[in-house]
Amino acid sequence: MAGGEGEAAWPLLDEKPDVYFDGCPGCAMERRKAENPGIPYGLFFHTWIINLVTCASYMLGRALTSIFWGILADRIGRKPIIVITTLSSLVFNTLFGLSVHYWMAISTRFLLGFLNGSLGTIRAYAVEVCRPEHHAIGLSLVNTSWAIALIIGPAIGGYFAQPTEKFPNLFSTDSLFGRFPYFLPCLFISIICFVVLISCIWLPETLHTHKVHNKEDQHPESLITYLSDSKEFDKQCSTSTKNKGLLTNWPLMSSIILFCITCFDDMAYSEIFSLWAESDKKYGGLSFSSEDVGNVLVVTGASILLYQTFIYPHIAQVLGLINSSRVATILSMVLLFTYPPMAYLSRPWLSIVVNVASVLKSCSVATVVTCSFILQNNSVPQDQRATANGIATTLMSLFKAFAPAGAGIVFSWAQKHQHASIFPGDQMVFFLLDVVVLFELIWTFKPFLDIPKQTSSS
After folding, report:
1. How many angstroms separate the first and last alpha carbons of the chain?
2. Any transmembrane segments, and where (predicted)?
3. Residue 207 contacts residue 78 (beta carbons within 8 Å)
4. Dist. CA 245–CA 110, nearest whole Å
5. Which of 297, 298, 276, 295 is nearest to 287 (CA)?
6. Which of 186, 174, 21, 203 lies closest to 112, judged by CA?
7. How far is it, in rounded angstroms, from Cα 107 to Cα 93?
8. Largest CA distance in the chain
């Protein structure tokens, strides 16, 4: 793989000795990967659909417990956490649809996020079910489930909400769906959760459970192999003796910071884009309707799915992780400078240009986010991977919580300074977004971003 610094981010310790311990699910997965070098599309789809049905969780609840779920996943395994959180999604999503008071709706959404610890676990799982050369596509597919959820979620809600009004011949006002007008879309999602929950029966575990130092418990063949290569095997699998604090692991934390900056930029951009697009042209906006904005978001979501599935893995392979991130951030900066002049375009060129810019901007964000995921997972041993992803999820949630409020305040200020002589309001808004992206670009260089020199066995 070309790309200079990016090469160092790929796993260097994935050439494992031929030692597989009976009864260890992690070893079973390693054997499976060794025997099947192809891309595990079945397991990728499984993780994709699990993430799809659980990615609408309440942000605060998720921020409070992501680290806890990560620690638990590193102790008892990935599969139990995925099962528990999918079950919680089923239960509390159903209760949300049965809410009759505002406090009940808020409480169930909070608990849905509080008990949803699959996000960080799924990211760890995605890199553990495949060989290193497939990490990019594995984490890309995890991200596409979010893009699909942004399309499918509102569609299900809009189509199935208030069924007694939309389908009076099927649902009477005296029925359960008449009393709870938003229960049907929630029930529909819960049914999907139930199907996914049942499918988890066949989801293989990836966490190693064998004890390396209990050599007397192994079969003679394994013991002989262990003794003949004990130093190398201990180097790769006995990570518990080498674990260091995650918060002092700078390769990990620096990649998490890059991830958080990118998420802040993306959330602020998403907030500003909708406000700017729907504002009047006299304020530097586009005078779009909410339907116009929705169409742009649908096109963007579908494009991200295609990009991350078929294009991004090849870009990462050719350029490397770091160079891919740098190219993406530079492209993002250039795009943001083109947004204010779009207000002078007329249809149909306006719609075409806005859609193209939105797609390219979102693909740029997806590139940096996925690269940072790979860096994070390659910066820690397996028994810390879910915890590391939990830390990343918690910090990301906090950054995303502040971004919309900050973006809204800046946009409101910009509306009042549209006729300023230097940097009119709309230009100032996108200039400030560019400053964030510039900081993001700077962070991809040393000494800020510390690329892991070697990574643990997965």
Report:
1. 20
2. 39-60, 81-104, 110-127, 139-162, 182-203, 252-276, 296-315, 327-346, 352-375, 395-415, 427-445
3. yes
4. 30
5. 276
6. 186
7. 11
8. 81
Locate 134 and state its tokens: 């497939």
d(C-alpha 379, C-alpha 397), whole Å: 21
Q: Which two tokens stand for residue 454?
A: 């070697």
Token code pair at residue 185: 């879309």
For residues 174 and 27, give the distance between their C-alpha atoms in angstroms, rounded to a whole number. Answer: 56
Q: Which of 343, 134, 120 is nearest to 246 (CA)?
A: 120
Instruction: Return the residue matching tokens 């802040």.
Output: 264
Q: 149 CB contacts (<8 Å, ≥6 apart)? A: 52, 55, 56
Torsion, Cα 308 363 271 296, to 10 degrees, reads -90
- Whole-angstrom distance, CA of residue 336 vs CA of residue 365: 13
Decide: 364 and 329 in contact? Cβ < 8 Å. yes
Instruction: Say if CB 440 and CB 363 are below 8 A apart.
Output: no
- What residues contact residue 112 under an 8 Å CB cut-off, 6+ apart? 57, 58, 61, 88, 89, 92, 93, 96
SS3 410: helix
Residue with tokens 């417990």: 65
pLDDT values of the chain reduced to their tens digit, one per residue, 458 residues: 444 444 444 444 444 556 788 888 888 888 888 888 888 888 887 777 766 655 644 566 777 788 899 999 999 999 999 999 999 989 998 998 898 887 788 788 788 878 877 888 998 999 899 888 888 888 888 877 776 776 677 778 778 888 898 888 888 888 888 889 889 989 998 999 999 999 999 999 999 887 755 444 444 333 333 333 333 333 443 443 344 588 899 999 999 999 999 999 998 998 899 889 988 888 788 999 888 888 888 888 889 888 988 899 999 989 999 999 999 999 999 999 999 999 899 889 999 999 999 999 999 999 999 999 999 999 999 889 999 999 998 898 888 878 877 888 888 887 777 776 777 777 888 999 999 999 999 999 998 998 876 433 33
Give dist(CA 180, CA 175) in Å, integer.
Answer: 9
Quick one: which H or E segment has residue 419? none
Token digits of residue 451: 């690329």
Please tell me the number of Cα atoms within 13 Å of 26 on its side-chain side.
22
Q: Is 260 exposed, middle or buried (0-12, 13-18, 19+ CB in 10 A)?
A: buried
